[in-house]
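Notes taken during the Thursday session

The instructor put the following on the board and asked us to keep it in front of us for the whole hour. The protein is NAD(P)/FAD-dependent oxidoreductase. We were told not to look anything up and to reason only from what is written here. First, the residues (408 in total):
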Amino acid sequence: MSKRIIIIGGGAAGMMAALSAKKNGGEIIILERNDRVGKKLLATGNGRCNYTNRNLSINNYHGNNPEFAYSALSEFNVEMTMEFFERLGITPAIEDNGKVFPLSFQSSSMLDVLRYEIETQEIELITEAQVSEIKKRKKFTIILKDKRTFEGDKVIIATGGMALPSSGSDGNGYTLCKKLGHTVTDVFPGLVQLKLESGFLKSLDGVKFLGVAGIYVDNKLILEDSGDILFTSYGISGPPILQLSRTALEYINKGKSVELRVSIIHTRSQEELFQYLVNRFNFNDKKTVEIGLIGLINKRLIIPILKELNIDKNKNLEFLSKDEIRKLSQILTSWHFKVIGSQSWGNAQVTAGGVNTDEIDSKTMESKIVEGLYIVGELLDIDGDCGGFNLQWAWSSGYIAGLNAAKN
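Then, after some discussion, the predicted structure tokens were revealed:
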């Protein structure tokens, strides 16, 4: 006799869990709080949907125990994910950095094929269904906010975390899990823009450059990344910053002072740049410092940097001291800022922290506390780097949960 499996949440993990469970003989109901499934999926990869990454390793994942993710990521791996979606009609486009997109470069393509599959597999989908409580006796009873109830043999919670609450991920999943006896670690935004302490942010707003950024705690480099970096009115953004944000916030949450060091010129060492500037300024010694830096860095960086160093912009290069040139070479290769926080959940791409993975069977995604309950995706204390790793975790954990819920 087939198991009746109720899936709470119709995002990436929930849809994958539904299709996996259906394939293995389950009778499936998806309860989705929005008016349609996959709302967050449409926003991924800037609307292009970076759905996995060929260069995946366990080192791309974070949490109190990242190794927890290994089993699911191995059992439903990147190749299997690409094959799965290719059968649904998604031709992969693979970039040099391993990122995989649909060849259409449209997130809507991913959602369209998943929705088609859910429909043709006759999976029952109930939208505008916000779950307020889950009760377990012999079977599970799901109670909605509007008092409708559903009964099932197994339940998979796939509500997502706290990131992008406009998509429906408002943390309700954590409340449901806590009520069932699970513990939840501190949650904070992951893959998010950082707020900096600086008096120059207004004038730097919108300045973009190719550089290197590093997170420092107690003067020690913790993590760095390179790529397009963007100054904003509140701080700093860009792909390297998103990659560093989890680490920065983790240390801030521990009460540590966190420093971001940015290399605007990263192709020369500080000493090489110092020598270069000495020669450059000697060659144009009648120019002012402000004019002398044009063509070297973004024009809008010049005044804030000179103010930071207390160098008069109208000073002629011939009167610039060696000490002042050294300070210029220092700030251009390593400009220091204090990190004071991040943008809100509405700007975050993923949730860091979540349901304690010690309470979940890594091979099945089943709760060790409540038999027949499965918890997947972003709800768990597992989050990935930027680049398709979080969606791969959603596919893998959802697939494993659906398979085991239907099988057991």
